[in-house]
Write a structure and sequence with these properties.
Elements: E1 2-10, E2 13-23, E3 26-31, H1 41-47, E4 51-53, E5 58-61, E6 63-68, E7 70-71, E8 74-75, H2 81-92, E9 96-102, H3 108-121, E10 128-134, H4 156-163, E11 169-174, H5 181-190, E12 194-197, H6 204-213, E13 217-218, E14 229-231, E15 234-236, H7 239-245, E16 250-253, H8 262-272, E17 277-279, E18 294-297, E19 300-305, E20 308-311, E21 317-320, H9 324-333, H10 339-345, H11 348-353, E22 370-373, E23 379-384, E24 387-388
Parallel strand pairs: 1-4, 1-5, 6-9, 9-10, 10-11, 11-12, 12-13, 13-16, 16-17
Antiparallel strand pairs: 1-2, 2-3, 5-22, 7-8, 14-15, 18-19, 19-20, 20-21, 22-23, 23-24
Helix pairs in contact: 6-7, 9-10
């Protein structure tokens, strides 16, 4: 298959006058358009299906979401193939071709049930790159919409229970200040799991200690996260300030226009640069449901209101109702980030954060996962492994 007449989005800019050749589900070549020789009518009918004219629209790598709980009333915690497929299909409509199904704070056995279900059903669900375990090793002071009664410290026993499924876990969120957290971070990193600090009331030195043990990311930056405060007569940074100041920390950002204001998003962009931000939806089961819909976040009653998900008493946000294209559009339109950089935050950066070497880039040898965008940044087509998703 040859994709032609498109504006290709690369990390360093947007280029015209190139076509992409796909063979065996991979990008085989990126080249100037080959001369089209005059053909007989029969040759044209035979080969036209192999040439896809994208009408001058943008061609980007498929988006990668490191933090997505749910959609359309179905949740990762349902532990079923039907729920996983519903979530993947909804987020594919927003350009996402790879995602981490994300758990909620719950008894460890419930989380293990999710890990087993993802292992059993991952093969036919091409979009699922693994699981992001968010909780239960988080701070009760910064639990947000997570259920505080299931929060626990990362004991060696609990960590071992999860690490029995390390082949499925790609990312784990931990509050670095908890007793046992540093040992847990080291254990997860040793087993190839990306560790992210979040839902945390950490002081600066807690974050630094976690970094020294292998933490390289911050979960939904600015949300459920400690910031600078006084300790005695001194003002000391929290996890936010540490994440902003440490070049090797990659920051998740829920750029839905509700979780973080444009000023804060601009500040993050100035501090981290385009290469230090991973856009994440943190979508919960209200995503895709009509305004006013009610849903559950592992037992917490929530609702969709004003384009975002809230606890039913409206006391806190309960994840987003967005797809990845909504975040890319926000970064371009409200934060004034160039389109190619916003796309990098949704593709190459998250791929690098969890070691997806063949995803998130338009380069020879990469998986043929694509999203075609209109000039207005609407999703027109989505392909995984060169096959279009209906």
């Amino acid at each position: 298959m040859i994709l032609t007449n498109a504006r290709l989005i690369f990390p360093d800019g947007i280029r015209d006058g190139l076509e992409v050749v796909v063979e065996g589900g991979k990008i085989a070549e990126i080249r100037p358009p080959a001369p089209r020789l005059r053909r007989t009518d029969e040759q044209t009918r035979t080969s036209s299906k192999d040439v896809v004219d994208l009408d001058g629209n943008y061609l980007a790598p498929g988006f990668i979401d490191l933090h997505v709980h749910a959609a359309l009333g179905r949740d990762t915690m349902d532990s079923s193939a039907e729920a996983f497929r519903t979530i993947c299909d909804f987020h594919a409509s927003g350009g996402t071709t790879s995602l981490l199904l994300t758990t909620a704070t719950a008894p460890l056995q419930n989380i293990v049930d999710v890990l087993k279900a993802v292992r059993d059903y991952r093969s036919p669900i091409s979009a699922v790159a693994g699981v992001h375990v968010e909780g239960p090793f988080i701070s009760k002071a910064k639990c947000g919409a997570q259920r505080a009664e299931f929060i626990q410290e990362p004991s060696p026993t609990g960590v071992r229970q999860l690490l029995e499924h390390a082949d499925v876990i790609k990312r784990v969120t931990i509050a670095p200040e908890l007793p046992g957290a540093l040992e847990a971070i080291e254990s997860f990193r040793t087993h190839g799991v990306s560790v992210s600090g979040g839902h945390s009331d950490a002081w600066d030195e807690d974050a630094r200690a976690a970094f020294d043990r292998g933490m390289r990311s911050a979960t939904h930056t600015f949300n459920c996260m400690s910031n600078a405060r006084r300790r005695g007569i001194c003002r000391v940074g929290g996890l936010i300030e540490f994440a902003l100041s440490e070049p090797q920390i990659s920051c998740e950002l829920i750029a839905d226009g509700h979780h973080v204001s444009p000023t804060l998003m601009r500040m993050l962009y100035r501090a981290k640069g385009a290469g230090g931000i991973c856009l994440v939806t943190d979508a919960t089961a209200g995503a895709g449901l009509p305004e006013g819909s009610r849903f559950s976040l592992f037992g917490n009653e929530c609702l969709v209101e004003g384009g975002v998900c809230l606890l039913a008493d409206r006391s806190a946000l309960a994840g987003s109702a967005s797809r990845m294209i909504d975040l890319v559009r926000t970064m371009v339109q409200k934060v004034d980030v160039p389109l190619h950089e916003a796309v990098m935050m949704a593709t190459g950066n998250p791929a690098r954060a969890i070691g997806l070497e063949k995803k998130g880039q338009l380069t020879v040898g990469a998986d043929a996962d694509f999203v075609v965008l209109s000039p207005e940044l609407e999703v027109l087509r989505v392909s995984v492994g060169g096959k279009e998703i209906p």
